[in-house]
């Protein structure tokens, strides 16, 4: 589909770091356009570069807070404007969380990590037409490049369990948000629910104690960093800074807001850790 030095059309937004590394190592030439702007895409399509384009790369989930394009509308438009190109959708964090993924909207290829679906490390999934899959299979003919045996079964078992685990996690998020917004912890000004990789909680404090809360939370049972988002190794709740993208836009929130993902924990556990971390933060402030 793509060879070193080829041109790829991407959205005018920060590219996911590991994707950017791959693009760089392959020496790909990136053409950027705002996927919200049909006229900008038509301008690329009418250019000499656009007429020779072979790949359009689309990230299903937001690359920046203001992203709002709808794949149901974007993919057909891209296929009309670039009929010679393959539309490749990065469906990480969207699989089993959105009504459809890229190929179901008409894209040529959908790709996603099974590690992010609680599967084994180093295993990905590619959905696409026969010629693409056959070429991938041909290039990975060696046994060392095949996913088989325990790895294949492990990935399948994980995908069966994930929808149930995420449904339970979603209910915990709703309960914690409801309890915090009802005033259960007076130091919390507001709790919002956000779709940021997972369905997570954005907790804003009345005082600038966010950094101290994050320092204290691991002592009471939280994890401070993801272990590969949505991986099987994440069990206790994640107390984490808000995303770098949001902090670039709103740096003042670093002292007032944290992100909490319950993961496999219940609402009582999340609130207990939060209450104890706040108490410790206030003692140290």
Structural write-up:
The chain is α/β, with parallel strands linked by helices and 285 residues long. The protein has two domains: 107 residues, Aspartate Aminotransferase, domain 2 (3-Layer(aba) Sandwich); 123 residues, Aspartate Aminotransferase, domain 1 (Alpha-Beta Complex), CATH 3.90.1150.130. It is 37% helix and 19% strand. The protein is built from nine helices and ten strands. The protein has a six-stranded mixed sheet, covered by helices on one side. 29% of the residues are buried.
Top keywords for this entry?
single chain; 285 residues; alpha/beta; Aspartate Aminotransferase, domain 1; 2 domains
Summarize the structure.
37% of the residues lie in helices and 19% in strands. The protein is an alpha/beta fold.
In CATH, what is the class of the largest domain? Alpha Beta
**Biggest β-sheet: count, sense, barrel?**
6 strands, mixed
| Overall outline | globular
**Helix- and strand-based class?**
alpha/beta
Q: Percentage of helical residues?
A: 25-40%
Give helix and strand order, one letter per element, not per position: EHEHHEHEEEHHEEHEHEH
Contiguous helical run count: 9
Q: Which strand order spans the largest sheet, edge to edge or round the barrel?
A: 2-1-3-4-5-6
The low-confidence parts are none
In CATH, the topology of the largest domain is named Aspartate Aminotransferase, domain 1
Cα radius of gyration in angstroms? 21 Å
